[in-house]
Amino acid sequence: MTTNRYWKLNRYPEGNDFASAFSLETSEIPTPRDGEVLIRNAYLSLDAGTRMWITPRTDSYHPPLPTGGPMVGLGLGRVVASRHARVKEGQLVRCFGQWADYSLVRPDDASLHILDESVSDQRQYLGALGLNGWTALLGLRHVADVQAGETVLVSAAAGATGLLACQIARTIGARVHGIAGSDEKCTFLRDRIGIDGEINYKTSDVASELGKIEGGINVFFDNVGGSILDAAFPHMAMHGRIVICGIIAAYASGGRTSGPSNFDQILMKRLKVQGFMCTDFLEMGEDLTAQLREWMDGGKITMPFDETRGLENTLAAYSKLFTGRNIGKVIVRL
Ligand SMILES: NC(=O)c1ccc[n+]([C@@H]2O[C@H](COP(=O)([O-])OP(=O)(O)OC[C@H]3O[C@@H](n4cnc5c(N)ncnc54)[C@H](OP(=O)(O)O)[C@@H]3O)[C@@H](O)[C@H]2O)c1
Fold first, then answer.
1. Three-state DSSP class for 242?
2. Pocket mutation for ligand 1, best pick of 142, 223, 308, 323 (most atoms within 8 Å of C-beta)
3. Which of 19, 184, 210, 273 has a CB 3.0–4.6 Å from the CB of 242, allowing a cystine?
4. pTM (predicted TM-score)
5. How do the domains of the chain map onto residue ranges?
6. Per-residue pLDDT tens digits for 22-77
């Protein structure tokens, strides 16, 4: 291959209309200069949080990606050329780069990870051992300090981050309830992941289902926000913790969301509500990966993949995140 295909961001998408916002372009394969690395991508990781990178707002956790340039995300691939002291040709790496056949990156120490080849399914570097794994572990351990015997609720529970939160909470010894958007997802959560209770938020009254959880919810790992977050507040246990991992219900409209209508429960129940970003903890990555690897090798956690083939099909795969058509991690195989 002598040309490189990449997805160009032409304008910020309206809602979930990605086809009007992006175009697939071709260019020469770039040549790295001093400090740069060229990676042949094997897989792209599609992450719901990147939707907040493609809005014009400047008060988000990430500055808006410039229009007219390539779309950026996490990828897994092999180094084909390097002019970076730490990175060698042939190495398997995970890095933030372009949605492209080849990514040209200028990595700092935290943003490019040189990977151990001994993992049999290397896709797990975008799954159980990837940023979703880090996020679930950080949220449950470092933010919420979940203890064995507590009750944990997870929203978007059949997605990449949610599935890992469910499995890690179980591994810690918590009872786990999950909220998801289809009966198929609920069955998967019950039969394959083995959680203690599941709620299809599209067909049931979430608040009344949550009211049946004996003893209340000690920790809510929330990926969704909006009405699901609202419904959980009255059912939190005293001194409960709410981890604000994501607010995907608001991403299509730019991420702005009003506060919970059950705000009073923060006081009444002495709740702790905390947002966090996994990218603030990149320097802890090796420790997080070691813990996740131990659990994965011991059969405690895994990640199913929703795999799409071909860079040209990236937008269809990306839209699954926002329409709920995925179970597990959405990736594109190049
Ligand atoms: N804070 C951090 O560092 C961090 C890191 C990674 C991810 N996250 C957050 O974690 C969440 C999940 O991200 P992911 O990449 O792992 O995606 P994912 O969970 O694999 O896919 C997104 C899922 O969200 C659900 N969803 C989509 N729109 C929804 C809506 N309007 N209302 C309720 N549920 C909706 C869908 O499942 P249903 O069928 O159940 O609706 C969909 O499958 C996102 O909020 C993301 O921003 C945060």
1. strand
2. 223
3. 273
4. 0.97
5. 3-127+303-333, 131-279
6. 999 999 999 999 999 999 999 999 999 999 999 999 999 899 999 999 999 999 99
